[in-house]
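Work Package 4 report. The design task specified in the project plan requires that, given a folded chain encoded as structure tokens, an amino acid be chosen for each position. We show below one input record used in the internal validation round.
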């Protein structure tokens, strides 16, 4: 029987499957959960297949990936579905952010496509955009909890910085002059001492998760 937190949420156990085959995303999940002593085992390490992402939202895709991993591994599973949404492109690439990188997951091509489509539309700078992260935790009995985080900013071209992954080199969060691609993991994911929101979308979602299921 799973324990329930003081907030009415189910407590997360000390061994969790990260339902991702993306090495960059796995690394960030490990970094974010490390302070809580949670052991992360990846879906790839367990030989679990990647389910097709057929949801119509970040939360729906995170839910289906987490459930698939939890059922197969018989362990709690955590899945993140995240992406870049560009205002002038009507929210695209959005839930299709990974697909814009094609099967090779070549995000340099995806970033080039974002710039090409913005210029083709004659969109004026600043090019407003936001990152969204939806985290789903699923248990083998099909119980699911979802937490979301968002960070707003603008796009910059050409891409700058080699830290992070995905679209990080073209995204400059509000209040900052550098892209996510130029920031360290601590800058992006560190939780401020005053308890205010962390900088990155994924860290903000993890803050909500931690308050509900870990603290």
């Amino acid at each position: 029987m799973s324990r329930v937190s003081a907030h009415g949420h189910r407590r997360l156990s000390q061994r969790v499957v990260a339902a991702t085959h993306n090495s960059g995303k796995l690394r960030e999940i490990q970094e974010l959960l490390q302070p809580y002593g949670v052991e992360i085992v990846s879906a790839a390490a367990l030989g679990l297949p990647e389910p097709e992402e057929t949801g119509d939202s970040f939360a729906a895709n995170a839910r289906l990936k987490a459930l698939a991993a939890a059922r197969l591994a018989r362990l709690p599973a955590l899945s993140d579905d995240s992406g870049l949404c560009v205002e002038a492109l009507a929210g695209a690439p959005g839930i299709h952010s990974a697909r814009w990188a094609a099967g090779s997951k070549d995000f340099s091509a995806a970033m080039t496509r974002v710039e090409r489509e913005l210029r083709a539309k004659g969109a004026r700078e600043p090019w407003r955009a936001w990152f969204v992260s939806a985290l789903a935790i699923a248990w083998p009995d099909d119980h699911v909890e979802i937490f979301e985080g968002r960070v707003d900013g603008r796009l910059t071209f050409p891409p700058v910085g080699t830290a992070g992954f995905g679209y990080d080199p073209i995204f400059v969060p509000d209040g900052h002059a550098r892209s996510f691609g130029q920031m360290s993991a601590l800058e992006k994911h560190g939780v401020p001492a005053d308890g205010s929101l962390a900088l990155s979308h994924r860290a903000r979602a993890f803050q909500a998760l931690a308050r509900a299921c870990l603290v």
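Helices lie at 23-33, 58-73, 107-121, 185-189, 201-213. Validation will be extended to a larger panel in the next phase.
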